[in-house]
Structure formats: structure tokens, C-alpha cells
Amino acid sequence: QVQLAESGGGSVKPGESLRLSCVASGFTFNNYYMSWVRQAPGKGLEWVSYISDTGTIIYYADSVKGRFTISRDNAKNSLFLQMNSLRAEDTAVYYCATLSRVAAAELYYYYHYMDVWGKGTTVTVSS
Amino acid sequence: DIQMTQSPSSLSASVGDRVTITCRASRSISTYLNWYQQKPGKAPKVLIYAASSLQSGVPSRFSGSGSGTDFTLTISSLQPEDFATYYCQQSFNTPWTFGQGAKVEIK
């Protein structure tokens, strides 16, 4: 069945780095845009980044721009999030999700929504 | 950035009740609005996309409406499995933003 499995979370000190991975199975990974979403403890959802199917289109939240890098390896059905210069406020559960795209009435516009989600991996940044 | 504001932030309801959650965008987002349900310790699940399109497999008691800046998620007859937190999310432009969430609790 369609599955996403995140890994790579852990406990680090401020300023350190982590690389999250998300392995996809049960669907044609290279047909899908992908996204990362995080959730701080007891808080709401925050979109982090998304990447197109070919990796040529990438967007980030302002809170991570310049520190995080999203990438993918379609040959390995894998999505990554390289997180540098980590801060306490980056502490969260990080989810990867597939992005479904539906053509809108306006030419070249698409509705995007996060469809299949992984179970998440926990990142803790603390001194 | 587009701010998304949900109301109420929490509500208590009984099984069988009709429940309505509102989401307001800080500027017009046409119908680029999604709704998600999240249960404690679990990943979110998409219910509605494009403001009113029901995701495959989602029960028909869930419905969405609205356009521009004001949107509504309605549960026509609340079921025990619907007690959860609901989030709206705009995909009109990046950065995509979520509402703060609306927790539906058992009365």
C-alpha cells in the first residue's frame, strides 16, 4: 500500500545539523511533488517546504529559508530535508507528505493538497 | 504572508450534532483552501481540498464551502471518530499557511 516512512530525527544542540529522510513505497514516487510539514510540541501545523517531481521547483517557509534544503532522489524513492544551524524553535515532529495537484479553472493554476502522510520523525534542539 | 484564522479554537459537541468550523484568510485566496483532520499522536488526514471537494474515502457527512476570504467546514452529524483537531490551510501562494486549529471535544 501507499506508505511514507520518515527517519533521521534525534536530539541535537543549537547550531548543529540533521538530515531527515522519507522513503516512499506503493506508488510512483517520481510522479509526485512532495512536502515537509512540522508540528512543534502542543502546537499547530507549519508548512516547511515543497519540491516538484523533478526537483526543479522548490519553495521554503521564511522560518527555514537559508538553513534547510529539500532534495529528492527519484531512483531511491526518497525525499530529504537537510537542516543546518538548528534552533530551539525547530523542535518538532517532521512529517513528509505527497502533494496532490488538481488543475484549476485558471490556466496553469493547480490546487495543491497534502494527501499521503508519514508517521513523522521527532527533532529536538536543546542545549 | 496570508494569515489563516479559525473559529472557534475549540468546541464541545455531542454525537449527532451538526458542527461548523470557520476559517478566514487575511486576503482573498479564491478557493485554494484545504481542510485536514488530526487525531492525537497521528499524522493529519486531508478531508476537503479546493474549498469544497471531498477527498476520496472521506465520509459524506463532511462538507466544505466558501471562496475569497471566508470558508466553512461542516460535519452534518458528528460521529465518535470525528473528535479531533481540524486545520484549514491555504495553497493560494507560498508560504502555505495553516489555521491555528479547532479542537472538537465530547460534550
Structural features, described:
The complex is a heterodimer of chains A (127) and B (107). Chain A is mostly beta strands. In chain A, 0% of the residues lie in helices and 55% in strands. Chain A contains no helices and 11 strands. In chain A, the strands form 2 sheets. In chain A, strands 2, 4, 5, 6, 9, 10 and 11 form a 7-stranded mixed sheet that branches. In chain A, strands 1-3-8-7 form a 4-stranded antiparallel sheet, with no helix packed on it. Chain A is globular and about 50 Å long. The model of chain A has no long low-confidence stretch (mean pLDDT 97). Chain B is globular, with a radius of gyration of 13 Å. In chain B, strand 5 and strand 6 form a beta hairpin. Chains A and B meet through strand 5, strand 9 and strand 10 of A and strand 4, strand 5 and strand 10 of B.
Task: Label the overall shape of chain A.
Answer: globular
Q: What is the structural class of chain B?
A: mainly beta
Q: Low-confidence spans of chain B: pLDDT under 50, at least 5 residues?
A: none
Q: Please report the number of helical segments of chain B.
A: 0
SSE sequence of chain B, one letter per element: EEEEEEEEEEE
The rounded Rg of chain A comes to: 14 Å
The helix count of chain A comes to 0
Q: Which class of secondary structure composition applies to the elements of chain A?
A: mainly beta
Give the biggest sheet of chain B.
7 strands, mixed
Low-confidence stretches of chain A: none
Number of strands of chain B: 11
Ends distance of chain B:
36 Å
* Portion in strands of chain A: over 45%
Q: Estimate the helix proportion of chain A, in percent.
A: under 10%
Oligomer: heterodimer
Major protein interface: A-B, 24 and 25 residues
Strand content of chain B: over 45%
Give helix % range of chain B. Answer: under 10%
Give the C-alpha Rg of chain B: 13 Å
- Euclidean distance between termini CA atoms of chain A: 40 Å
